[in-house]
UniProtKB/TrEMBL annotation:
Carbon 2 of the heme B porphyrin ring is defined according to the Fischer nomenclature. It catalyses: heme b + (2E,6E)-farnesyl diphosphate + H2O = Fe(II)-heme o + diphosphate. The lineage of its organism: Bacteria, Pseudomonadati, Bacteroidota, Cytophagia, Cytophagales. It comes from Algoriphagus aquatilis. The keyword ATP-binding does not apply. This is Protoheme IX farnesyltransferase. The keyword Translocase does not apply.
Amino acid sequence: MPTVNVADHSLSSLILTRIKAYSDLIKLRLSALVTFSAVFGFILGDRGVSFGWAGFLGLALGGFLISGASGAANEIMERDLDKLMKRTQNRPLPLQIISLQEAYWFTSLVALLGIFLLWFFTNPLTTWLGILSMVLYVFAYTPLKRVGPIAVFVGAIPGAMPPLLGWTAATGEITYEALIIFGIQFIWQFPHFWAIAWVSDEDYKRAGFKLLPSGGGQDLNTAIQIMIYTLFLLPLGLLPSYFGLTGLNSGIVATICGVLFLAQTFSLMRDCSRKSALKIMFGSFLYLPIVQIAYLLDKMP
């Protein structure tokens, strides 16, 4: 019979545990979504005769690392609060899979490497915007979560930065087109954040987070505000087509997605239930990538 090397099995298990822990620390899935939005901005902004692969890859990896460092710094600052919430109590720091000192060193290294890649492969404007995004997320949005709903407004700024960084990496400047794709993602943050806050209300209250508007209530006033910001996405979604950044087809897709997204908010206004908020949350996850992919496929030469 074949023998099993217990030491080898334990070592491989330990390595996999550490890899998963560091992946959780940098919020791997969130960082991947952020990177997608940055890549979207780059491809939409690229107008060169030949595609700028060096800038593209530098942006993708550098942006991913800066996003990961921001997420890790957030987990470091909220490590004691994460113990109080069901959705975060299994993160690596509350479970002490990674020591606090390790987390500090790892986060610093990832942040510096991300900044270097942006500086070397893109341009100073993109690098400084990336640093600004990280600073706002870590040192403004994170502490403000326990202050009040202003945190959502502040957090929406770094949350909308990725497509702007992508555009500046490709063009080296902030133009009205860049502000349009920034604006769409900025407004999208509000129904997205508030739906998550509604669904996670009990957990957030344990940690003292105050993200819902209208006094933090799960009521009609909050549902109406979610509806209003979702409504804003309808005209905003048409701006790329109107200004000739993309064609008419993507405008139609953005409008259909916007109407479907908006329809979900009426259900929330009707029953103010967690189930309806959950539908909006999942709807927000679908809306942004579908619309951004439509813009890319319909990009004007």
